[in-house]
Write a structure and sequence with these properties.
By secondary structure, the protein is an alpha/beta fold. Helix content is 40%, strand content 23%. It has three helices and six strands.
């Protein structure tokens, strides 16, 4: 299991860094990717697109952990809850 830690904000400025980190992990043999979102308090639609692109392309399991309630609500409203796992 490999873990990626997200930034406090995931917007246009941080999205390329997140995308690069996820891409690196997805290129490994790992079957499960854990995304630690304990510090994240804001995510724009650009951040959501990064998750969507990487989930659709990977075929691997992505687990989000330490997701703050307001962030989980964003995933719920946008329909990601059925695609991602939460710890």
């Amino acid at each position: 299991m490999t873990e990626v830690k997200t930034a406090v904000k995931i917007s246009v400025a941080q999205a390329p860094e997140l995308e690069k980190a996820l891409k690196t992990v997805l290129e490994t043999e790992e079957k499960e990717i854990v995304v630690n979102m304990e510090d994240t308090i804001y995510m724009s639609s650009v951040g959501l697109r990064v998750f969507q692109k990487k989930i659709n392309a990977s075929g691997k399991t992505m687990v989000l952990k330490n997701v703050r309630p307001q962030m989980k609500e964003i995933f719920e409203v946008t329909g990601f809850v059925g695609v991602l796992s939460f710890e």
